[in-house]
Amino acid sequence: MEYLNTIDFARQLDASDPVKKYRERFYFPQHDGKNVIYFCGNSLGLQPKSVKDYINIELEDWAKYGVEGHFQARNPWFSYHEMFLQPVAKLVGALPTEVALMNSLTTNLHLLMVSFYRPTEKRFKIICEDDVFPSDSYALTSQIKFHGFNPDEALIRLKPRNGEYCLRTDDIIKEIYKHGDNLALVLLGGVNYYTGQAMEMEPITFATHLTGALAGFDLAHATGNLKLSLHNWKVDFACWCTYKYLNSGPGGVAGIFVHEKFANDPTLPRFAGWWGNDPSTRFQMSKDFVPANGASGWQVSNAPVLAMAAHKASLDIFHEVTMDSLSYKSKRLTGYLEFIIEEINKKYSPNNKLITIITPKEEAQRGCQLSLIISNNGKELHKQLTEKGVIADWREPNVIRLAPVPLYNSYEDVFTFGKIMKELIMTN
């Protein structure tokens, strides 16, 4: 598509955007009496206006029924988690039996690794990104130590080629084959939090399986951002949070995926808890754990209903709009932002060196995040953007992350951001 850096062009795109109506269903922080330009949905999504009503239903039923709300509430709490299975499965390209909502992201990663990282004297290595999100790094390192191995030997951190910022899929696969006989697990971010690179999960999973290892993904920056097909890609397991692109509130309930081939495998170790037990015998209070079918068998505690009510408010919006529509807009919206930034760089930057977009240009290798390296006073520029009503994200040592979320951002947001960015660059 040929873009133009004009307000009329941006408004024309907004006028023809079938997703634009959903913007009105979210609260925006205010700056000088106006909506901020919110490009931080990759860190914390905006609040749907319906969240309060969804939570109030559960508060009212708690007040009315007390403990009897487990069976008499409008959405009975005993089976509350079950109404999420179909919409969550659709969101990540899975079967309903392959998903569950529970706990928080890193907690779920640890629980899944109990089952899917079972190192032996020969197979003990894990492959991850060098710039993996710190919490994942801590989890992987502690799991390796827990099993008595040395992280310096067991954890293979993939680095881009010299002079590049992102990993090449061919290089990832080459490294997988290199360590194949000693490889236990490949654990990558579906979208790298720092660069915004979307991993090619299907070929990576295929190569991993050829070595006899397992493939898992942290989808914190992918779920609600990319169109996923975890079941068909034969991913072994995955986990994600819901407070970023899924707009479910700070610390919102997280999700897991476990492929159906593991649904009823009694040989898999797991850390069991009451809510992972077969619901038909859960209240018999047996001493013996009988896991529920599928991913539900990895649940530990009962559903955090209030947090899940907030998540349901967002999921209902995703059900209406569909990932197909969001993916289409995401490509155009992110492409427009890229065009605006590159035009600024060409016109106002000496030798086009002020701004470097480190996120891949290929649409298939990114979602709606662009990561920028600012060669001069990047942190100060980020501060000035905030003071002008642009909410973006700064990541050490030198990256500004921008996420034009298609569900609630507009093309006019992108144009206005470019106007503010140009003014700041010209005055610095």
Structure, explained:
This protein is 37% helix and 13% strand. The protein is α/β, with parallel strands linked by helices. Helix 1 packs antiparallel against helix 14 and helix 5 runs parallel beside helix 6. The chain has 3 domains: 147 residues, Aspartate Aminotransferase, domain 1 (Alpha-Beta Complex), CATH 3.90.1150; 117 residues, Aspartate Aminotransferase, domain 2 (3-Layer(aba) Sandwich); 120 residues, Type I PLP-dependent aspartate aminotransferase-like (Major domain) (Aspartate Aminotransferase, domain 2). A hairpin with a 2-residue loop joins strand 1 and strand 2. The protein contains 14 helices and 15 strands. It has a 7-stranded mixed β-sheet, with helices on both faces. The protein starts with 6 loop residues before the first helix and ends with a helix. The mean pLDDT is 96.
